[in-house]
């Protein structure tokens, strides 16, 4: 093991002397005031989405670093957490939602799909056939077909917000929204609103 490897080990919280998981969790929540998770596409043209969502929800983004007495960045003032995945599809974000709630606590989850998205340029059958012919593998059972592409924005957002709502890793108290972001204008349009009050425990 090199000196660099040993240094990296020092940054693993669970390996530090006196580690107490509940205390570390509280510390994380205090240093990162997360309120809203936004799920959006990895398309570089979609990078305006976090700013648009922050304005829509009154969140702090990108915020500033919080430093300790040694000048180390230990937290942030941002209240918006980005989850960036292909097409902004919820299937790929479920684990991040669960971890975000466990470490930081959340109030809102916002799924944003965008115009001119590559996920609208192919079909589920098309990508499955392509993988079969180009890579010699069958991915037909790898993901739910409804999560593979976007055939229309309203149905994809409805599917994704319901997928998030029905996940055991999603806290029941959060509000879940579905938006379309117009790449040309930077405008957000809300199509889905799934409020916690509409989903009694």
Structure explained in plain terms:
This protein is of the alpha/beta class and 201 residues long. Helix content is 31%, strand content 20%. The protein has a domain of 137 residues: Beta-carbonic Anhydrase, Chain A (3-Layer(aba) Sandwich). The strands form two sheets. It has a five-stranded mixed beta sheet with strand order 4-1-5-6-7, sandwiched between helices. It starts with a helix and ends in a 7-residue tail after the last strand.
Write the layout of secondary structure elements.
Elements (H helix, E strand, L loop, with lengths): L2 H7 L11 H11 L4 E6 L7 H9 L7 E3 L5 E4 L3 E6 L8 H10 L4 E7 L9 H12 L17 H14 L8 E7 L6 E7 L7
